[in-house]
Amino acid sequence: MASAAEQLAASINFSAFSKATELKSRIWFTLGSLVIYRLGTYIPIPGIDPSILHDIFARNAGGILGMFDMFSGGALGRMTIFALNIMPYISASIIIQLLTAVSPTLEALKKEGESGRKKLNQYTRYGTVLLAAVQAYGIAVGIEGMRDGAVGAVLNPGLGFRLVTVVTLTGGTVFLMWLGEQITARGVGNGISLIIFAGIVANLPHALASTLELGRTGAISTFFIIFFIVVSVVVVGFIVFMERAQRRILVQYPKRQVGNRMFGGDASHLPLKINTSGVIPPIFASSLLLLPATIANFQAGDQSFGWLGNITSYLAHGRPLYMVLYVALIVFFCFFYTAIVFNPAETADNLRKYGGFIPGIRPGKNTADFLDYVLTRLTVVGAAYLAAVCILPEFLISQYSVPFYFGGTSLLIVVSVTMDTVAQIHAHLLAHQYEGLIKKAKLRGRRG
Fold first, then answer.
1. Smallest Cα–Cα separation from 136: which of 155, 159, 163, 112?
2. Which of 56, 154, 220, 440 has its CA 20 to 30 Å from the CA of residue 393?
3. Kindly report the CA angle at 57 between 159 and 299, in degrees rounded to 5?
4. Alpha-carbon distance 4 to 25, whole Å?
5. Residue 160's CB: how many other CB atoms inside 10 A?
6. At residue 3, what are phi and psi to the nearest 5 degrees?
């Protein structure tokens, strides 16, 4: 097991940064785009009563709405034009990846290279619009049913409100999808990830202030706050270590003689990450477990949902059944999603096409079996790591009323996106330094 420390080995050279005008323009473009996103999270959709909606969402903060509100930076709780955030795009991307694994047509498109990738991206965009429209209509109907006593959250419910809500929320998601693609192409980092990152980070100061307020009022002790900060730092460091850890498999290429010269004989490495599935397993696991609680909260006054209330009580934060199911779902989705994104047979076939082989392993099926063997054991470690990172914050949230923003999923997203962005900044700086060296070498060659 090796670490990908080489990717971040070079420290930032501030003199080089001052000369890298393209990098500075990319950073300013990224920051400007994120500012536009944050401004949009405060523009409400027309026809709602914000105060009543705020009270309703406050009562459902521990359910699935609380998690999605965290990802949207509070836009869902304020019911703004970006209430759906970028989640329909992520869902559409996952659906396309799943269909690619079972559909020969989509699998053939994936193998076509750049043209196939463009078609798959187009299908993802169509899926995003469809999912956003369906979710927006569901939100519109749900808001019409929300009441605080005798007062409804919607001022004028009806077909007009639903149509305006669907158009507004779908348009907001499409705009964020476009903005994320622009950040990826013209800025620094992955645009979609940065949008989610900005939503989480924007509410971290409020979450920290809430924790300190609990300490001031005596709800939690000062010792626990210090302990919590130390644990958070340790967990972040552990996440950085595990996200950068990988198993490097040696790949050898045979020598070839062309005329009187020998070519090839090089060796490279096939890196396999411990956590191949990323943050998808905790998100899926949390969504499934929080769904019954959300439905039960909305139907609190309906006696026909009494059985759902009993299930919700067993699935509350910190309860043994919740913890066991949470770990089980994380482990399941780790293996499931890893099997989707990495195909050992396809990788072994590509190695054989280019003449590569793993020393001591025969090409073809034996190589695929070996890769599957290694990946399975790496996924066991990765699943245990994700379960540990997510269970500890869940325990703190349930036992000590720590804000939801300090959960394992949010920490994973923040740390992963930060590492990826810093790595891209280093890559731009190194490319700029290499360009400067090449220009100097050319000038010296002309003078000579």
1. 163
2. 56
3. 70
4. 28
5. 11
6. -105, 145
Strands (E), 98-152: 147-148, 151-152
C-alpha dist (Å) from residue 426 to 9, 193, 375, 433: 9, 18, 29, 11
435-440 own/partner pairs: CB under 8 Å, 24+ apart = 436/19
Q: Over range 107-136, report the average pLDDT.
A: 87
* In 187-221, alpha helices (H): 191-217
Using CA atoms, how far apart are residues 29 and 44, in angstroms rounded to an integer? 25
The whole-angstrom separation of Cα 162 and Cα 143 is 10
pTM for the complete prediction? 0.77
Mind listing the pLDDT tens digit for each residue in 281-297?
A: 887 887 777 666 656 55
Tokens 């869940």 belong to which residue?
Answer: 394
For the chain, which domains are there?
A: 8-203 (1.10.3370.10), 221-400 (1.10.3370.10)
